[in-house]
Amino acid sequence: MSAVEPIDVAEPAPARPAGFEVRRAALPGAPPPTPVIFASPHSGRLYPEDMMSAAALDARAIRRSEDAFVDQLVEAAPAAGAALITASYARAYIDVNRDAFELDPGMFIDELPDFARSRTARVAAGLGAIAKVVSEGQEIYARKLTFAEAQGRIDGAHRPYHAALTQLIAEAQAAHGVAILVDWHSMPSIAARAAGVGGCDMVLGDRFGAACSNTLTRLVEREFEARGYRVVRNTPYAGGYTTEHYGRPARRVHALQIELNRALYLDEDALAPTPGFTRLKVDIEALTAALTAEAWSGRL
């Protein structure tokens, strides 16, 4: 890990890089040992040439949209019995934690299809499936895009990611009767300072109880609080597309979003891990062990 790692620019080629990586906790063909699935949808560092050639911002500015190094914080999950899926493409290129067609018509030179979801709060904020702005509100693109470009990103990255995630959930349910999806994110320290009373270290988003059982939320809350972290629920982040789309407790699919305060582990200016990275990773590994040790089939 180094300060401001150079972004990986994918050169045009007949075969594009995979949009995600899946690491299972079982040997090929074997059922998953636990129903727990970890996902990191916003830690991707791949910026294809078709994006960078249209961009108005430099790499450093665009990289501030990443949940930098979150994939590395949770990388030990398979060794503890949890499957892990991580997005490869940067969220600024295509955000897999959005509806695929959550698009801003003002970003496109041609008309969007009627089924596009252009009136959501996320689109209004400039953070649809294809982001208009980075976190500081700077516009990413120097020109308007075409819908064909959006369709290419959806077909090449968004749909394959969700097909793989859906498969992991199906495998967990087939083996255990239940699936537990934990969607990992990071939040700017300025947002964390505004949460709760006196700020927080983590925000647990369960869509106010609609996306998962309180049993799961409470376990995660208890494990983090026991290690000295300040934890709040649902404010300012109640959960994104992933928790909303997959969290169906009545169908025994439970989805919980975890937002980590970047100040715990990251120099936000240099985009480099701090000494706190090691402590946080160890504590996440302890939480992972607690999650995978539970007999969830009998509890949820």
Mind sketching the topology for me?
Blueprint: E1 20-23, E2 36-40, H1 49-52, H2 59-63, H3 70-73, H4 77-80, E3 83-87, H5 121-124, H6 147-176, E4 179-187, H7 189-194, E5 202-205, H8 214-226, E6 231-233, H9 241-246, E7 253-261, E8 266-267, E9 272-273, H10 276-293
Parallel strand pairs: 2-3, 2-4, 4-7, 5-6
Antiparallel strand pairs: 1-3, 5-7, 8-9
Comma- or semicolon-separated keywords:
300 residues; Aminopeptidase; 31% helix; single chain
Textual characterization of the structure:
The protein has 300 residues and is of the alpha/beta class. It has helices at 49-52, 59-63, 70-73, 77-80, 121-124, 147-176, 189-194, 214-226, 241-246, 276-293, and strands spanning 20-23, 36-40, 83-87, 179-187, 202-205, 231-233, 253-261, 266-267, 272-273. It has 10 helices and 9 strands. The chain has a 7-stranded mixed β-sheet with strand order 1-3-2-4-7-5-6, with helices on both faces. A two-stranded antiparallel sheet has the order 8-9. α8 (214-226) packs antiparallel against α10. The chain has a single domain (20-298), classed as 3-Layer(aba) Sandwich (Aminopeptidase).
